[in-house]
Amino acid sequence: MIRHRYINFICAAVALLALALTGLLCFGEALGLPAASSAPGYAYRLFDNGRVHTVDLRVEDWGQFVAEAPAEAYVPCTAVIDGEEFYQVGLRAKGNNSLRLTEEYGLSRYSLKLEFDHYVDGGNYYGLDKFSLDASFQDNSYLKTYLVYDMMAFMEVPAPLCSYTWVTVNGQPWGLFLAIEEPEEAFARRNFGPDHGQLYKPDYRSLRAENADVALRYIGDDPGSYPNLFDNAKFDVDGADQARLIEALRVLSTGENLETAVNVDQVLRYFTVQVFVMNWDSYLGHTGHNYFLYEEDGMLSILPWDYNLAFGTYALGMTDPIRDPNVLLNWPVNTPARGEVMLERPLYHNLMKNDDYFARYHAYFRQLLSEYFQSGRYEAVIRQTQAMIAPYVEADPTAFCSYEDHLLAVDTLLEVCRLRWESIRGQLEGRYPITLSQQAEHPGAGVDASHLDLRALGDFDDLEAAKGRQDRAMAIANTRRRRLILSAAR
């Protein structure tokens, strides 16, 4: 038996401390303490977006890696993140048209993907399994993706964390990239908790195919009819998972009782931002891809991805892309794509046939316009971020544009946002056409954007000019490697 003159006092104090700790665990969020699932360690390290981070990629043969990058094969590397080393990290190039065109133009600045558990089971960066390094392909502002994710987060749409990163290769400067949290296990835990649902990245195999599953159309009850969904699942999928998703698509196809199968508010907020930024390399475009689909308990949500071609700059694969800024910046919010596309996009079209949802969609636009744009938040985000990254853009050895072109792109992006905001406000107030049919009846109505050249945000001509810069950077990186080999041999 324990004997101590203060034993009763000690036991009482321990009991009180245990009660206090229990209270913190149970009610910590109410007291202002973040939940562990919503505040993983990586969020406050690499994704502290108040500064530019550093990533050094130590790769045995960088020249060979770049030459073989289009195959998207992984190679092992050591990633030194803000001075901290992580070994045996899987590294590969990433992208679709951007990857193809980087190769086609003979360039070497690929977007990259780092996977911590590719070679090492359980490998992670403070809880993060994977992130990408976005090369700002056809984005001379370096800001399009960053700004859209900020808009999505502002509208309470689950969006990847991101931050700017100065990338070096074996110690040699390679350029300014945007680090982006990849939507996989860590992302799902952070946004939806440890008991999260299923996550998919629907994508087409061929543009010439019908790709009805990518468009989220109901094709029947056979899971084999949805290869572009189930083959692109981020987690293991069983028969029950397939059945829930297919049933949700069936309900969606009917246009009735949609709140039993769709997270309506979240989807409406997503489309509000998506339509504002005129991104047609997306679910609302010809391809119908570049989004993540989240399903939990039979409820569907759509999540944002890939915005380097937003703000009216999508022209890939188009024989006659729209270039007129007056057309683009006045694009009507009630018909964000032509009828033949909209009819094949039930997640937008069937929701908008419901009067209540349609009214909520307009209400979310009013919120975005007043609280994000009229308040000046968009300008503060653009200007403050540009000031932070400016020295790095100016020193970027593999940049797709000159520093002067970058400054022009930032000014252009500011003006695009201002005019788009004014146009949509006029549409909601009834002063400007809000549908394509109204535009046909009133040609020329809307804001005057004729002074803008959207090619300043990033265009194919920039790819031609970038080759010399990137060749020089590659030569320096290869020279550095040869010196290291010679030094090791001595």
What do these coordinates show?
InterPro entries: Spore_coat_CotH_CotH2/3/7. It holds the Pfam family CotH. It is a single chain. The protein has 490 residues and is of the alpha+beta class. The protein has a domain at 41-186. It has helices spanning 7-27, 62-67, 97-104, 144-154, 185-192, 227-230, 239-254, 264-276, 325-329, 339-342, 346-352, 355-374, 377-395, 403-428, 436-441, 460-489; strands at 53-58, 75-81, 84-94, 111-115, 130-134, 162-169, 172-181, 198-200, 291-296, 299-304. The strands form two sheets. A seven-stranded mixed barrel has the order 1-2-3-4-5-7-6.
Brief summary:
The protein has 490 residues and is of the alpha+beta class.
Q: What Rg, in angstroms, do the CA atoms define?
A: 25 Å
Uncertain spans: 22-37
How do the strands line up in the largest sheet?
1-2-3-4-5-7-6
Structural class call reads alpha+beta
Oligomer type: single chain
What is the end-to-end distance? 70 Å
In percent, how much strand structure appears in the residues? 5-15%
The largest pleated sheet is described as: 7 strands, mixed, barrel
Number of helices: 16
The helix/strand order is: HEHEEHEEHEEHEHHHEEHHHHHHHH
Number of strand segments: 10
**What's the overall geometry?**
globular
Average of the residue pLDDT scores: 90
Proportion of residues in helical segments: 40-55%
